[in-house]
Every structure is written in C-alpha cells, then in structure tokens.
Amino acid sequence: MNTLIADLDALIEQLQQALSSADWDTIAELNATVPTRVKPVMAAMEQGDLAPSLVQQRLEQLQQFCDQAQIGAEHTRAEALRALKDVSRNQSAARAYRDVSGRESG
Questions:
Q1: How far is CA 27 from CA 18, 31, 61, 74, 79, in A?
Q2: pLDDT tens digits for 65-103?
Q3: Domain that holds residue 20
C-alpha cells in the first residue's frame, strides 16, 4: 500500500482514538495536520499514482470524523455552558444568602 494512503489511515485511526476518548487537544492538533497530509495524496491521485477510489474512501472517512468531532465538540461546549450557568446561579444564591445574613447580624 502506498505510504501516503498509509499515512492517511494512521491519521484516521489517531483521530478516531482521540474522538473516542474526547481528547479535544489531540483532535485539534491532528486536525491542523489534515490539509498538509491530504495535499500530497491529492497530487498523487491527480498524477495517476493513486486510485481515485482509495482516495475517495479515505476522504469520506475523514469527513465522517469531522462530522462526529463537530457533534462531540458542540455537545461538550453545551455541557460546559450548562456547568458555567450552574456555577453562576450558585454564586448568585451564595451572594444573596450572604447579603441577607449580613443584614440580620448587623
């Protein structure tokens, strides 16, 4: 198998592992390498060195990963937003309690 295809396969595997463990830092790092890793594959395909079906299959897998990562990232963001809202509500409640308690003892 061509080393360029093997490199894409390795990237897909790494992305899938990072996604399954919700390792967003690794996903971001790997995602940043996608264009530089896909470009030589596309050039090789255009020169006839790689079968378009092989390239298409890997690109579809990368697209599926991107879709899954987007959904996962949105879910994680929504969870973080809910947690921040809970913290804000707790701070407001604690402030209100402190204000009421301060008036009663003062």
A1: 6, 6, 15, 14, 18
A2: 888 888 887 888 888 889 888 888 888 878 887 878 777
A3: 3-105
